[in-house]
């Protein structure tokens, strides 16, 4: 799935903020099937996908976890690290071999506090991601569980 223009990291952050963020990135790889995080666990890091895909999922009582959205190149994996109490609202699993940039959440929050312009930019980007994911979750859950689906045409 391609990220909307406002949620893809290169489009969402100005060059100087993108460069500052990438200075603290660590390159990581995960095999297909690796759980990056579980709903309700501590959110201490986040990722930007280089290659591969990640499925975001939500626990549904009495059923298998529902895949809410699949993320790909340049998309942010995880937003719960920015908002107290810093616990994941969804789960995430590598749907294919994954290469990503990993960021320590505490370090990024500290930079956001020290540089208000950087912090505003990151907060706006993450807020747009949250809004997009909320809408995607709504549509997907209606498709899965509502009697007539979401009513959207695809």
From TrEMBL:
Residues 9-78 form the Cyclic nucleotide-binding domain. InterPro entries: cNMP-bd_dom, cNMP-bd_dom_sf, RmlC-like_jellyroll. Gene3D superfamilies: Jelly Rolls. This is Cyclic nucleotide-binding domain-containing protein. It comes from Streptomyces guryensis. The lineage of its organism: Bacteria, Bacillati, Actinomycetota, Actinomycetes, Kitasatosporales.
